Amino acid sequence: MISEHIPLNPTQLLFFQNGFSKGSPRVCQVSIRTKGEPTGAEREAYMRLETTVKAAIEAILSLHAETRLPPESIIDGGEFTLTARRRCWEYGRTVDFKWGDEPVHSAAYKWIFEFSLTV
Q1: How far is 79 from 12, CA to CA, in rounded Å?
Q2: SS3 letters across 25-76
């Protein structure tokens, strides 16, 4: 499970000690965004639902590691919708990441998740 807080809108690197499902350590660039500046309702809902959102993100990353997902996937979370889009992460290939002394492989894709409230 993703333990660190993932704020709305900034980009963050997530490290997975055992890869996305199995295997060597991995790092992935992830952003959770709203369509514009988050509204008060979006901020409140995200704070309340962050654990569920992070579980959905981890599921997408793990699933994509096992089977190639389409470039865009939509998750209906009841109160929210999470639209996942992936793009090649060229910059990640140029950096030597480490977990202590162990090399960490960068994911081939960076992920942008658009968080929106359902009405």
Answers
A1: 24
A2: CEEEEEEEECCCCCCHHHHHHHHHHHHHHHHHHHHHHHHHHHCCCCCEEEEE
Q: How far apart are the first and last CA of the chain?
A: 28
Which position has the token pair 């709203």? 34
The type of residue at 43 is: R
Is the pLDDT assigned to residue 18 strictly greater than 70?
no
pLDDT tens readout for residues 51-65: 999 999 988 988 887
Task: Give the chain's length.
Answer: 119
The residue with tokens 């090399």 is 103
The residues, any chain, with a CB within 8 Å of residue 64's CB and separated by 6 or more, are: 20, 86, 109
Q: Rounded to two decimals, what is the model's pTM?
A: 0.89
Q: Which residues of 5-19 are buried (b: 16+ CB within 10 A; e: fewer)?
A: ebebeeeebbebeeb
DSSP state of 100: T
